[in-house]
Fold these 3 entries.
Entry 1:
Amino acid sequence: MKKILFILSGVIAALTASVGINATTVPTDMYVEPGTTSCVVSWVDDDNSAWNLRYRLFTGESDDPVLLNSLDGTIYTNQSYQAVTLSSPWSGNNVYGGYGALYFRNATHQSATTDGYIKFTIPAGYQNDIFTVNLTTASGQYGSGRFVVGSIQTTAVEYSMSASETHSWTVTGSAGDVITITSPENQYSPDIAMIAVYYVPTNEWTYVNNLTKTEYTIEDLEMATEYEVQVQAIGDNGTLSDWCRPDVFMTLDEEPFVPMVHILGDVDDQQWACDAGTKMTYDPETEIYTATVHVDADKTFGFTTEIDANGDMGGWNYVNLYRFGPESNGLFELTEDRLGRQLPLSFEWDYFSDVHVLVAGDYEITVSLEDNYIIIGRTSVDVQIGDVNKDGKLSISDVTALISAILSNATTVETDHYSPVAADVNGDGRITISDVTALTNILLTSGAS
């Protein structure tokens, strides 16, 4: 019993190795994202680590040869050979039929003055395409011998046939070209049971092998053109899965429109204007717009996908149609709790607002028109001497913050609401009660409360 189990386990192991169990899973959920001259193909396959990919023009045609026409010699059943006139697209010279076959006589035959032949004219719709000529000889003693087949574009090839044999010739031709069948035999050709001409589709696949990621970008495609693509898995021992179901896609006829996004308002050195703005940088991979700008305290900025750069589009009446911003029923105050958060966007005039900056500094702005959100992060804060609590303005609150830092002996430790640089009001490099006096004098002079 143990011996039988051992043998069975060996057989199972051998079968598993020969089948390539890891490659039996066909890749699934293939997704194609086309561009104008390229496309990104991705698929799902958790069972394998390598794949082959193939693609080609999509024609909707089968890969199998297509029969264009045939000439059946077996229909000539009369018990004597009689001259035959062939119908288009066939033609011939010295062609005879009888005894279930066709043949043609050459000039050496006593009743002929020229060599015989059978010709096929390629119909309309073909240009430098591939065709096969399948010729089957008749049975019996007259069924063996040599034939020569060629075309205008293909050198004639001779082949010696046995009785009841089928042989194929491959030729290239275009509409109106003639495929010619001759025989170098003395007096007459071998008897012919059948001649069939096939068109051979030449829509060949382009292969990309041994991919190690479940995503691949196909380059150098034609614009506005249909293609089909397939993927197959490679097992650990090199065996291959079936090809997945083909995905047919069409490349774009033009580059997809990507709107420009400008930041309007009091950013960097600009002011509110309908003909100027800070252009945000677009990343096509993430479909995200980004920009880093400097904004002073108590200033505002907004967004638009159009500016009136030439001053001839209608000014603000034109630009306002393309403005957007964070959702808000009133002026959007950029408070500390809103920094770095993903905030929803609105494109409806009554439901978005410009951004009001409370603290001067550099701001990194991220906008997604695809997912409708904005993120505003502050990368640095402008230091205003005396703005001890970092709220962007001078007030009695700064005096309170300064006194608190001195009393707690934490004058050198920066926090979200305390700036050691701003606390050194008199600029002597130390933070003492003298700075409290200096800050109080500034407030009294400016009239701040």
Note: The domain at 21-59+205-250 is CATH 2.60.40.10 (Immunoglobulin-like).
Entry 2:
Amino acid sequence: MRFRNQLQILPLLLLASLWPSAFALQPANEPNSNGTGIAPPPPRADAPSRTRGDQQPPQPDLPFGPELKAAVLKEISNIVQGRAFSAGVDFKTWPDKIAKQQEKIDNATTEQAFTSAVNQAFREFGISHMSLQSPRAAAQRTKTTMVGIGVSLAPQEDGLHVMSIVPDAPAANAGIQIGDVITKIDGEKPEGPESLRGDEGTSVTVTVKNSEGTERDVVITRKEFSIAKTDTLTWIDEETAILKVHTFAAGYSKRRISDLVKEASAKAKYLILDLRNNGGGSVDNLNQLLSHFIPAGTAMGTNVGRPLASKYQQETGGDSTDAVAIAKWAESKVRTRSRVDTRFEGKVAVLINRGSASASEIAAAALRDCVDAKIIGSPTAGAVLVSTFVKLPGRYAMQVPLSEYVTIKGQRLEGNPVKPDVEVASAPRVRGQPLPPSPPINQDVAILKAVEVLHAVAAAPPADNPPADDQAQRDDAPDNRK
């Protein structure tokens, strides 16, 4: 008997403090909630945190020191070796990885230094959605303002890759751009995104390398900035609208999204869903958005976690590290839910870029697979693991990956970016200048291409093959909304 009780919806799917997998990022677009003022999930981070019932009960706070560090590390070890999952990753090697950082951990005299050392060990796993958050970062996770420089970062071997930038935040005003690599912070090689954390009004010197390999030093003063963005519906003409969704994390409003889709459905034949620089967030928010486009009960993917992988190996003798094979075998699927009043029935295009990560990648893939949406832009982050945050002693928190996500057409998204149907490169801009506002609609190449593609689709003769969301894909499926 196949494993039928797969948990369909896990608490969080974030881009918070993503470590390299494919290219990996944090978040991706929205400020990464690692307390650095680094815009997430994920990264960011970046999303409303819903705690699990098996998390640590409240404990008296210990002062920072050897006793607290030991308590945090003990809990992390239990979680990593007992709960973490990513296909093909051996989490039993955690003791060896953390041992390499033991000297730094012992010498750490601040929360920042301790967190950085632990995260260096996490990075060795080479996956996204795995990080330790300091007490300050954990407290920041659900807030919509931050103090920092305002970027989302992906740790790589050559430094911290800038994945997205908050408009009007210090980094944007200093001329930092997506694609830059921060190679030094105050003259030292950065140990992680948390190295940029600091108090409001303090300055930091970052050495930035652009895509051509040229380095420059930039002095940035940290300040408080808002990370909340209002999702919008913009009309191009009487029958074409653009729905911009900035995040699935803190700031996402289900009511507003429903209102905007209802407005679009009233007269639009074509809808462009703009997920560029959307770094992900809550699975619940993701499902709410998709319910406005995909019929209720449509299978759109499979969560492959530790229990399902083990069951697959026991019952078939197959490879428990092959997420795609496990997903194909599993009966339990992630499905859209009947939870909205309005479903858009027109043609859909989705805009993506390298800053589209996690939940955004799932959204783009599901819309293409299930309603034949066309994807325009550049490849996404390839950073998709379902994860949750677990409370640790001393008000620390750990983001732990719990399952892989495989699309209904068999693509494992972790390490495998969603590729557009029509590739459109991002428009160049002058380096060393403040980040400009988004171009007008009539100058946004991706939007113009999306309009062209949608009209071409509408003019094309009907396809012979049934759409991916046909009745067979919805019938005889277990309801796993537990």
Note: Confidence is low (pLDDT under 50) at residues 1-58, 429-436, 467-482.
Entry 3:
Amino acid sequence: MKYILRIKETRHLLAIRDIIVRPGTSVDSGRPLFVIVRVENMGANKEEDIRVNVAIPDLGIWELVLETI
């Protein structure tokens, strides 16, 4: 007996696991706001050059985070 088995793998799948904002829920004018985003690769391929955009549109703030750990 012959069986045909087809598997469709997910090659590119990223999951956001955690977002940490410091110093919490508020920040004073002129002070830094730090955002850490943990992203997990759930796909079959190795991912490189992952970009995370962090924005506060009401304040006109748009940042591109390129640093990876």
Note: The mean pLDDT is 82.
